[in-house]
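Table S2 (text version). Query chain:
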Amino acid sequence: KEICAMVTSIPAEIFQLEIPSIQVGKPADFWITPAKDEAYLDNLIKIESSEISGVFVNGEIRYGNLDVAKSLEAKGFGIDVQGQGKWCAYDIRKLKKRIEAKSKGVCGENSLWKKIS
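Corresponding structure-token output:
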């Protein structure tokens, strides 16, 4: 319960946002991932971005497995994350090029940056 509050209601209070809740008819932000460990917190720490099945914002898929996006008839872009084919609602390759141009290559040294191609 404490971990859930740390990633939901506490940040909402800090940023003066509506306290998140799951209710019928309300849009939801959530993500789906396989359980790698029985301990919930360990799953959050151990998960790789390529293992995330779906990220939903306001009930709309934004990132995830290609088959999940296809089943939802979502429009977006195929990308490679850590050697896995994924789907994203945004043109990540185009965004990455714009950021690289602005940052003059600084982002290329970031290990997370290297996971996206």
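Notes on Table S2: The first helix runs from residue 2 to 7. The mean pLDDT is 82.
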